[in-house]
Predict the 3D structure of the following.
Amino acid sequence: MTQHGEISDYLSVHQLTKKFGKFTALDDISFSTKLGEFLCVLGPSGCGKTTVLRAIAGLEKPTSGTIVVEGRDVTQLPVSRRNVGIVFQSYALFPNLTAEDNIAYGLKQRSKKAKGVEGRVTELLETVGLSGMGNKYPAQLSGGQQQRVALARAMAISPHLLLLDEPLSALDAKVRIRLRSEIRQLQKRLGVTTIMVTHDQEEALTMADRILIIDRGKLVQMGTPGEVYDKPATPFVASFIGSMNFITKVRKMEDGIFGVGEHRLKISNGRGARRVQNGEPVMIGVRPEDVMIQADGGDGINTLNTLVSAIEYRGSLFRLSLNLPISGNDYTTIDADVPSEKVRRLGLQENMHLPIHLPVDRIRVYAA
Amino acid sequence: MSQLAIEAPLERLPLSQTIDKELWIRRLLIGLVCLWMLVVVILPIFQLLSKSLMDNAGNFVGFANYVHYFKTPALSNSIGNSLFVSILTTLIAVGLGFLYAYALTRTTIPGKAFFKGLAMMPLFAPTLLNGISLVYLFGRKGLFTTGFFGTIPGFDIHLYGPVGIIISEVLFAFPQAVLILSIALNMTDARLYEASDSLGASKIKTFFTVTIPGIKYGLISAVFVCFILAFTDFGAPKVVGGNFNILSTDIYKQVIGQQNFVMGAVVSVVLLIPTVIAFIVDRIVQRKQVAIIAAKSVPLIPKPERLKDTLFLTYCAFIALLIVGFYSTSLFASLVKVWPYKLNLGFWHYNFSDMGGGGYAAFFNSIRMAFYSAAFGTVITFSAAYLIEKSRQMRVLREISYFLSILPLALPGLVIGLSYIFFFNAKGWSIAGMFIPNPLGFLYATMGILVMSNIVHFYSVSFLTATTALKQLDKEFEIVSESMGVPFYKTFVCVTVPVCMPAILEIAMYYFVNSMATVSAVIFLYSANLPLASVAVANMDDAGDIAPACAMSILIVLANLLARMLFGLATKGVKNEPRPGW
């Protein structure tokens, strides 16, 4: 049907590059989504993620590359012909129109039959849980309610794509968490292919079918939330989503065995370990919640003696900072997240000696 | 194509139409804005410049006229005179305006709204009236000169000349200084003062290290605006200038008195140079400001301080008394039978039937002209500002139009008027051997050219007001509408205009009030069958009929106050609509 992408791909972006003068905002980005998929574009501020969204919306003309929707090349289409619903961080609700009129705004343009519009608006208000609020003006609604009106307005035109640009950033933490699942459920129910831009990793992990991680204009990883969290492709991804301890100056001794100073660590193959040559210097990473302490087993394998240098209370858990001697006076710091209950039970305190265990299958190997 | 799982009760738009019709409409409209500014600003000014390089017969003579100008002390002395009065005016007006604005923003004196409203009073009057009032106060038979008609010993301030000009111009520039400095003083960060306090800085040190640097840009802007106003005003100097020649009265004398259009053009260019320099410097300074006010600040709420508040209240009351006294004198004088001999009150001078100048016909012509200027001016200015501010494409074209839109700020009314005579009265132009007849000649001596000159004269301030209002709207409104397939002109009508209504009404009022009061641009452009009120004031004053001139000025002020009241009611109506937060 089309030369670009798989037939099952609803939206595919090919080698998208956008330059603003000398600055390259997007560098050769390709990805695709299936119909009804919820895709999150995640990255630090200024990484170019909003430019991806704007290019898909038709707000920025790409320097090169193509955007294909339903097998049609839409790269040259103006915004008004792409049939996308957009929700901005500011909501951009028209302040002089009621919630109803805001939702009906795009519909009236398309349908001369006022009755059909009215029914559709009532239906949409119900869908977003705002029945009976239709005659309120945006300023009379709470932030969360305004957000839902904006969503209903975007959905009113039955868009090919729903584009969300940091839609939850302006809301309070509590409302934000509630709206996350509401938006997700609504999106599933309506089956609209959705792309959301966010800088909030938690938002991406909880909402997305797949996450696209962009750093300095380049696509660094794409995968399900589980994949990007468990198998971060680069140290950047690893530290951007969740946190990770990195131990440098590590050498591969033989297959599955790595050396750090005097220590020997067993690391299961896969997870990047296989690609490394013997003797090659590498960097290994382990997430704080994967660091096991003391009697948690391990039969002496990957057990390291450390000194507790600091304990930080974090409510349900404690973050321990552990000093691990490497060789001589050289040491590295490893963070470990330990449930509060366990810290109390073991009576953990600063300056205590504490043996830890790094599980064989939870260590990632990266090029140094 | 894959089947869609989405319930789609409405038909989706096809994805195939690639021609962006709206983009072309926008391009066309912005092109029209550029063309409009070209025709009403650039070409007339170009015509004026080329006229100054020709002799009266129309032969090119290079800079000969300028050489003659600078070799004739009777002419070139006016440059020094103009600079002298405008610099002194600027210093006084900005000084007085600063104290007044400081009282309005940084103290807890009562009646701030009253004081602010009263300070704006001179904006509603033709500057001719400032001169006329001064004549009644300090002229040969003035209230003070005669010691309240002989009750106390009188004193003469030698009104005619620089003294009179400076007093009138200070009064004229004062409201602008107060406005600009109030805004600047309002835009401050309370945290800076808290920090200064906590570091133990004295009040005086805080004033010089926090207050003054904080309003730096407002202060510079106030200085330039006051300077330009004083440097280019024509009304007041015409009445109280006496034998003290300044540039603006020279232009009038050359053109109307001696019919020497070429020398009028030369003086106009001389007048234009400092104004353009002030304009450019101000633009550069304002551009820097944008980068500085970025962080969110905490508004400063003044605390009551007895001594300070009392001093400032006294000052404001004193200024208010001066303004009230000033205009009451002219109101009184317009009602007195024969100043200063028969002080019976009545409406003798409001019967203009045996006067030159056009009487009530002129007054109603002025109202019509001001109304048209407000109607067309507001539509043109706001639409142009919208297209320039809210379009995403055509950056270069938009920047050119923006520059052209603020350019009239540098053009004195007399220069606009004179260049319009040259441009619209021209038979045509020979370009590369081809004669092109003037397609706009039909506008000459019509209401059209008067309205056009007013729109251009007051264009920039209106344009900046519109731009400021538009900048406050969410920049995503247009994108959202676009994504829903709603054409931009529909969103303009349904959303942008209603939301910006307060600013639009303000622009309309600004056009009306200024068109009523202005004399400088229209004095060259009115025709005998289309007399105007402000011109009538000038002509009656010329003829020595100062009381009717004063009465006509009072009518202009009343019309403007009425317009202001209607504006107040209209904005109240707009604000009462159920739109909380807007």
In short: The beta strands of chain B are 336-338, 342-345, 428-431, 434-437. The first strand of chain B starts at residue 336 and ends at 338. The two ends of chain B are 46 Å apart (CA to CA). The interface with chain A takes residues 1-2, 4-13, 15-18, 20, 22-23, 392, 474, 476-477, 479-487, 490, 494-495, 498-499, 577-582 of chain B (CB under 8 Å).
